[in-house]
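Hi R.,

Here's the input for the uridine-diphosphate-N-acetylglucosamine complex you asked about:
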Amino acid sequence: MTSSLTGAEAWSLLTLSAACVGIIINTFHGDGEPLIASLAFSGIAFAFTFSLIRWLGDTFMKAGLKGRDMSKLKKVEIPETMGAICAVVYLLTIIVFIPFPFYKDIVAATSGGGNREFVLERQYVETGRILHRFPHSKLASYLSAILSLQSVVLLGIGDDLFDIRWRHKLFIPAFAAIPMLVVYFVDYGVTNVVVPVQLEPYLGTMVNLGWLYYAYMAAIAIFCPNSINILAGINGIEVSQSIVIGFLLLANDILSLYAAPSSPSPHPATDPHLFSMYLLLPFIGVSIALWWHNWYPAKVFVGDTYCYFAGMVFAIVGILGHFSKTLLLLFIPQIINFIYSAPQLFRLIPCPRHRLPRFNPRTGLLEPSMTQWQKPPSRPVAFLLKLLAGFPLPLIRLEKNGKGEIVESTNLTILNLWLVWFGPRREDRLAIELLVMQAFCGVLGLFVRHELALWVFRQDNRG
Ligand code: UD1
Ligand code: MG
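And here is the predicted structure with uridine-diphosphate-N-acetylglucosamine in place:
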């Protein structure tokens, strides 16, 4: 990879950055327009990430952070762990952004005093003074998001350096989630879930899950990063799936903000959705810069750092934005891939170090990769596998020896399953097809959430 920017690229990035700086300076009026500032910051974050990936690629290779692209004729080595650049630029961006959402509270309303009153309108004077207080709780949730993300990025970089065992790294995001869960507890503390209308006669309208709700949120923090990391192995798929989820979450925020009734006092659902947009916009900015270099044919790899970082951004947005169930609706392909992978993850079926599709050098196409059975599976397992392989749309493909014993079976990822169903295809085509499927599932999920929710729930939390 050329390690410098071309003239045209340098000029475009410079122009973009200058325009974004101009926009940010212009937002210091009135309420500060944090959303526009966030958009401009995302542009700058994109330009920085793009340039740094180019400049630091060789440095990363020298430090040993490199990987072999296994699905190419020439298995060249390219820089890995480029997600670390995204994560660092992202963290710095949202740190610099801290004053912006609070500009109104710091400058316009409280003049830096935190609770100095603003000029009161007459109708309020009649009924007593209302002090405008600085929203410390909002700041706390923003800061806890940064803290949780930083911890998980540390884990990601550690994993890229030392290849931490799967069973060890699985639970680390749960620890990283503690700052955010504490803020949730102090600030919001709702552990009730609304019961679907159909189950109300048995359970009542609400069920209090208590501490189980915290376990559920910790599980989300574990699931999101890991599920992105195991839906991987072809160029571009990790970043692209994250960008798709990022845009779907943005759409969800916009739909929710749009639906919130306009009233003098802001609707309670407004703030979490704005908060979520402030975190998502720069995420999409840094991810597009990475995508540019990681799409087929990849010039860099994202590394586990990116997968953990991306997953944690989604977990944080979902938990602190109070829409974790909607979040899961946008993770349907990842959930299916996780469940489908479970037999290999829990070693019921042998799990090789890599499960990515196999590159056939003769055709240049990807084929399902196989895992070898050292000794044939036990009778019941063999029976089950043959049953799954016998479906009209088989869930697994088996290779048998002369005696009819299973010696090989396909690795259980939806990438391989797609190849079993639709036949060998080129790497980028496989990625595009999976992304279209993912986007379709996501849009369906949003439709269910925003249009059909009233079939199951008495009230939409927008209303
Ligand atoms: C996860 C998967 C593993 C898959 C790997 C690929 C599980 C339990 N683990 O492991 O099966 O093989 O991701 O990312 O499902 N690579 C390519 N082309 C790509 C992307 C990656 O050849 O487009 C190879 C490169 O050699 C790269 C390596 O995969 O160096 C990165 O693998 P890593 O992310 O460390 O694997 P895991 O996340 O542990
Ligand atoms: Mg990985």
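One thing worth noting: Residues 67-71, 80, 229-230, 232-235, 298, 301, 304, 354-356 surround uridine-diphosphate-N-acetylglucosamine (ligand 1) (CB under 6 Å).

Cheers,
M.
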